[in-house]
Amino acid sequence: MKRITRPLTLLVRPEAIPIWFLRLIDLAVLLWIGWFAWKYAGFLLRNDLYLYGDHPGQFQRLWQLLAVVWPEEGRLIGWTPYWQAGRPELQFYPPGFAFLGWLIWMASFQQLPLFVVYQTLVFVSYILPAVGFYLLLAWGLRDRLAGVMAAWLVMTFPFPLGGVQGVIIGILGYQLAYGLTPLLMLAGVWGMQAERKMWPWLVTGVLTAATMLLHPFQVLFPIGVLGLYAFFRGKEWLARLRWLGGVILLALGLIAFWWLPLSTQSQNFIPVVEASLLGIRNHLGNMWFAAMGWLLAVASLGSFFQRGNRRSLALAILVGGAGLLAFILFNYLVIVERFNIFALDSVRLIPGVTFAILAGLALGVSELAWLGTRLLRRWGWGAAGLPLLVIVPWLAVNLVNEEYNFSKWITKYQPAPHRTPFFLREAETRYNLPDAWRVMADTPGRVLFTSAYALLYDVPTSLKALTPFLTGREIVGGVFTLRSPAASYLWVGQRDPGVLRGKVEMEDDRSLAGMPWAAMTDDFLLNLARHFNITLIATTATDVNARAFLDNSAQFKPIWSNKLFTFYEIAGYEPAWIDAAGATAAARLYTRTAIDVTVTEAQPGATLLVKVGAFPRWRAEIRGETLPIQMDEHGLIEITLPPGSYTLHLRYGPAWPERLGAIISWATVLGAIGVILGTYGQRWKVTSR
Question: Are 123 and 46 in contact (CB under 8 A)?
């Protein structure tokens, strides 16, 4: 065969394919991604709430923004009292996913039901990584076969950190940031290659800012890869790094409204180390494709024989993943364990390693699939290698399916009639939950949950996090691994432990406020209830130790039970949001951000306990004079009262960090617009001459 036809020439030499045909291929692949996502994750798109794992708690965060903080204050970050005595929740938890939900909701003119907004976010978190992986490999590396393989892998890889299970269990910030990671890399590569860098600078900066808001840890990997790419490209690497530095400054300016107030509140942010070294190794070991690891070697070797941009970017991704893996272990063994610096939780960096592995596997498949045509092309027989374009991906898909059968695995998490209640309405019907909501709604004060998770048959769920949304009641106890002083006290019995190790759910039915249930006493639990204004204790069917203690105590009486929950009321406790020592006090006004207390006959040294989480944005005033606010041993507001009778006003509101952060963010937006307009204005003048 000395000559081959034009169509075969295009296949053997993909660089010769016209751009319009490549765009048709891109469109076809994106439609396939949409079809695949609809087939396997379309069940998520309904006007109901998916209950598996952390979804109820994530919805609760979104509800607090859309239904409480925004309507009442017109702000994106405000005080939310519903968990662990209150805190500005989205100040300390990456707020990007809630902000994205707010954008979707506002785009619908606030008409979309909140469940639909949330479930849309869940579906987007499933499909976005596949789209991002394909575009990065198809446009950044000009390897559409690798792009298709990577898109399929990321939609079927059953792993929580960078895989489908992250969508199932509800770590949406992770998944959305993971989906933006390849788009951020692609924009950065575009900017480093383009002659006119203003628009790439703006797009890359916005994507960097969005990734930071979704999950700050996840921005380290793509920025590191872009830095390696700038260096691997050779000449002008320093100019490229300066451009990347400008991108980072733009991103920091855009999100100053969030990070600046956060940076001033380190004393209210308890660091967490979620996994031991064994846990980190288990995470890394579970995501290893044992039957396909050799493809990473093929991808690495093949990258060295590529030219130009493909070689630089492929090596940057693979080297970046290896470097991040080394840093994860170094961070835990040296920075955390030796120097006791807990700023970075190693387990949260693992998605970057997952990214490099999935991209490497896809590139390895592509290298092998094109190997025959590349070897035979020089003799004019390249078409003889074309069957490998089908055979190699087919073998790879089969190897993955043998290890992780996705179509079978995903059916465990889809609703099945008359079996498992994965959605709220199914659970309410199966467990008669509306009665439970009514009992909690009729109870003044807070509800204490003795564990973080419940089991709906075999489904772990943070269903109890929906209590504020469904009943209006505030809750304390097992609600996620929150980092506030009050939450830390309820977890380990200390308001400032230095570091929290593990996750709060590890103490389910083992201890409360650091006290093991086997050693629990009536006095300890009664004091805890009075201090946090707890009037109802809720246990689940799996809380054997907690229920055994409460059933054998004369101070706690069961008042309602079903197959899931048992509620106990506290004998002889009259609910109160304030307590005074050395004075008589009554709460005249008690709202989310405003509390007025009438104080009479305060003696010297009198104190007032307000059963709300202490935070510097609360201000206490008497007749226009400011009183200092202290934090008691439980993390709540304590105020030393002056003698006499008066009205104490407590108000929550922004201070200089919030105002300065907002000014910086707005100035950055206006400055970026001004730079772009100025640049194009100069070009217009030159063109008009």
Answer: no
* Cβ proximity of 249 and 668 under 8 Å: no
Paired tokens of 204: 């890359």
According to the model, what pLDDT value does residue 3 have? 43
Higher-confidence residue: 286 or 568? 568
C-alpha span between 123 and 53 (Å, rounded): 16
Please report, for residues 117, 162, 354, 449, the alpha-carbon distance to residue 36 in angstroms, rounded to integers and kept in the order given: 21, 18, 21, 39
- What are the tokens at 213? 């808001």
- Domain edges within the chain: 6-47+113-265+275-412, 432-570, 578-652
Tokens 């898109």 found at: 151
Q: Where are the alpha helices (DSSP H) in 3-47?
A: 6-12, 19-41
Q: What is the mean pLDDT of residues 16-33?
A: 89
Mean predicted confidence (pLDDT) in 84-100: 94
Taking only the tens place, the pLDDT of each residue in 186-234 is 999 999 988 777 889 999 999 999 999 999 999 999 999 999 999 998 8
β-partners of residue 534 are 446
**Longest C-alpha distance within the chain, in Å?**
106
pLDDT of residue 324: 95
Q: Angle at Cα 646 formed by Cα 642 and Cα 648, nearest 5°? A: 80
Do the Cβ atoms of 313 and 229 come closer than 8 Å? yes
For residue 276, pLDDT beyond 60: yes
Query: What is the Cα Rg of the chain in Å?
Result: 28
Provide CB contacts within 8 A for 144, sequence distance 6+: 14, 22, 25, 26, 29, 134, 137, 138
Question: Residue 595 is inside which H or E element, if any?
Answer: strand 594-602
**Is the predicted pLDDT of residue 379 greater than 80, yes or no?**
no
C-alpha–C-alpha distance, residues 87 and 618, integer Å? 11
Which uninterrupted H or E stretch holds 672? helix 656-688
3-state secondary structure 418-451: CCCCCEHHHHHHHHCHHHHHHHHHCCCCEEEECC
pLDDT of residue 174: 92
Q: What tokens does 356 get?
A: 């490099």
Q: Looking at residue 500, what is its pLDDT?
A: 87
pLDDT in tens, 630-639: 999 999 999 9
DSSP summary character for residue 642: P
The CATH code belonging to domain 578-652 is 2.60.40
What percentage of the chain exceeds 90 in pLDDT? 65
- Give the integer Cα–Cα distance in Å for 427 and 415: 11
The whole-angstrom distance between residue 522's C-alpha and the CA centroid of its chain comes to: 38
